[in-house]
Structure formats: C-alpha cells, structure tokens
Amino acid sequence: MSAPKKTSDTASVRDASLRKRLGSLGDILDNGPGDAVAKATGVFRKPPANDNQPDFFVPTIQDVPIKDGLDLMDIAVFRLAKSQTRKGDIIRHELPGVTITVAGGAHGMATIMDYDIVLMMVSHLAEQTRLYRHGRAPKPAKAFRPGSVEIFKFCRVSKGGSSYDKLAEALRRLQGTFIEIAQTTGAKKSRRTGYFPLIAGADVISKTDTGRIGTVEIIIPDWMYDAVTMHTNPEVLTVDPDYFLLKKGLARFVYRLARKAAGKGEAVYSFATVHMRSGSTRPLNKFTHDLGCVT
Questions:
Q1: Which of 83, 92, 179, 251 is deepest in the core (most CB within 10 A)?
Q2: Each residue of 162-202: pLDDT tens digit?
Q3: Per the record, a Pfam family (predicted)?
Q4: pLDDT digits (tens, 9 = 90+) for 32-68
C-alpha cells in the first residue's frame, strides 16, 4: 500500500530518508546478528545457548519455515511495547475502505512478542497443509499441540524459568485480543470483514515436574485456518529466522511492513503513516527518533 500523496518538499525528503532506513534494516537482518553493524546498533539480542544445536527429544517444528499471515502484516494487531498491556486497551486503524479495531481483553492486549506464538502456529499449519497436499500427512487439525520447549526453540528464547511465566502470560493476552474489521460504507471491499481472534483458545494439556507448562493445545481460529488451507497459494509469507532476535518491537513491526512490500514494487510510507499503523502512543517526533535508532 502507498501512503497518501505528499504535498511538501520536507515530507518528500523525510520519505526518502525512511526508505533508506528501511533498506538498511533489511540489510542488517539479511546479514544476521553476527554482523558488525547489528552489534554496533544493538538491533539484535544474543541467541540463546545451543540455538543451532538439534534437540533429539523435541520434534522438528523449529526447522519449519517461518510464515506470517499476509493480510495483517502492514498494521499492528498488537502493542509494540511489552509494558503496554492495559486491560481493555484499544487500537483503531482508519484505512482506505475499512476500519480495523484491535481490542485487548481482561489480561491486556497481546504484544508483538506474544505474536511469536501465532507465527509458530501459522508456520505449523502451512507446513502441514503442504505435506497434506503432497499426500504425506493427514488434513491439518485446528488444534495445535506444541510443547513449551518446542515454543522456546522455535522462538529462539532460553528455557529458563521466566520463559515459562512469559509463555503463560502471552497465551492469556492472545486469547483475549480480538480484531474487528468493518467495511466503510460504499467502499470497495479490500479485506475480509468481521470479528477475528488471534487464537481461538488455549489449554494446558500437561505440566512439567515443577508444575510449569509442559504441552499446550492452541486452537487455530477459523479465519486463519481458512487463509492457509483453503487457497492453492496460501496467504502467508516467509519470515527470516533472525526476526525473533530483533530486540525492539518497533524493529519487528518495520520488518513486517517491509516484508509485505518486498517483491511487489515500491511501497512508499511517510513517517506519519508508519507511526499510525504501528499503533504507537508516542508523539510523532519521538517516534521518528525511535525509528532512526532501530534502523
């Protein structure tokens, strides 16, 4: 998508700067967290211990190509900051033809870090659908049952005690976060409309000897299941594994924005447009500074 046409020389210069910064972030991600530029800017966190070592007691879900739903990659359906998880939080996106409202539940709105679990769910579903179409697996179920260690491995986080607590908190927020997409009167329909949860439910199936989450069952919502399984070319894009090592929520959002535009010609966004679509509550001038820091 393109931002509205700019009317001033200043805006044009800032847009050119933004395009350059987006390109720089893409180059850093391509080079990976070992790149000197990434180390200097602090874009990436350090990978967990044994990140590249296979775990023979864990299924190979962590080796599945990482997929993201195409339709929601250009807006934030979550909060970027871990600290912004207020009960009943609302983000509203006014886009051409549609209004998209994201509402948090009793445990607050899901964060972009919580969304890593959704990426794992979509990746699993896309891979199972591919195997099914090649006659190598049964039709994918709507219930996805990963172990907590699988989730940590896939999302490239350590298996420490705090990770289990964060997993439980993330599942609560994901269950309570809903998206409403309403078509503007008289506008041409460009997105599916209705009410959409990020996950349709979650249940702890087993616990570890220490009482922490062992295996969890996550119910894939109908809208996400259909988007992946009902199309010859699923509505998903591959995400670089180093995405999970990006420390800042803003860096992750900008990557998603740029990833959706990649290969589709040039998508031009102003700083104001990126600010609006990110759902950030920061003033625009401070947001622009933040964007410069991550790119």
A1: 251
A2: 999 999 999 999 999 999 999 887 666 566 788 999 999 99
A3: RPA
A4: 554 444 544 578 888 888 776 554 444 444 456 777 7
CA distance 107 to 114: 13
Which residues are CB-neighbours of 13 under 8 A, at least 6 positions away? Answer: none
Query: What per-residue confidence (pLDDT) applies to 83?
Result: 79
Residue 104 in contact with residue 90, Cβ under 8 Å? yes
* 130 in the same domain as 76: yes
* Residue 279 sits in the same domain as residue 223: no
Is there a contact between 113 and 15 (Cβ–Cβ < 8 Å)? no
Same structural domain, 84 and 216: yes
198's enclosing H/E stretch is: none
Longest dimension (CA), the chain: 63
The number of domains in the chain is 2
Which position has the token pair 């409309």?
193
For 91-145, what is each residue's pLDDT tens digit? Answer: 999 988 889 999 999 999 999 999 999 999 999 999 999 999 999 999 999 999 9
Contacts of 154 (CB under 8 A, 6+ apart): 61, 62, 64, 116, 120, 123, 146
Structural domain boundaries enclosing 40: 1-45+246-295
What is the distance between the alpha carbons of residues 208 and 215, in angstroms, rounded to a whole number? 9
Q: Which strand (E) or helix (H) includes residue 194? A: strand 194-197
